[in-house]
Amino acid sequence: MTGAGDAYHQGVVKDGYPAGAGWVVAAHGELDQDTLAPLEEALASAADRHGLVVLDAGSITFGDSSFLNLLLRLHHLTTLRIAAPGEQLRRLFALTGADTVLSLHPSVEDAVGGS
């Protein structure tokens, strides 16, 4: 595996795998300052190795401001695309205006393809 290694075995990060020219990190559950570290490690590791990082957000049930801050920081380091965000995340992105900054896509396939 060329991703973040051990981070994929720690709670909120389900999987990491190559897709097209990038790397997909699949996360799940509630993401806040207490649970964010494994995801931050996985995304940062992927950003170091790949020009495109896709966060599969389809199984994320909650994200707070620390999660949003992580995404915005990563957005400046690499091409970050968010795939399949649920209702709570879409609302968070819309209320904060992050939906005008972050690249949101309905599915991983769309995010990898850039459509």
Helices and strands in order:
Blueprint: E1 13-19, E2 22-31, H1 37-49, E3 52-63, H2 65-77, E4 79-83, H3 87-96, E5 103-105, H4 108-113
Parallel strand pairs: 2-3, 3-4, 4-5
Antiparallel strand pairs: 1-2
State Rg.
12 Å
Helix residue percentage: 25-40%
Range of strand content: 25-35%
How many DSSP E strands?
A: 5
Distance between the termini: 27 Å
Backbone structural class: alpha/beta
Strand order of the largest sheet: 1-2-3-4-5
Mean pLDDT: 90
The unreliable regions are 1-9
What's the shape? globular
Largest sheet: 5 strands, mixed
What's the helix count?
A: 4
Q: Helix-strand pattern, N to C?
A: EEHEHEHEH
Q: What's the oligomerization state?
A: single chain
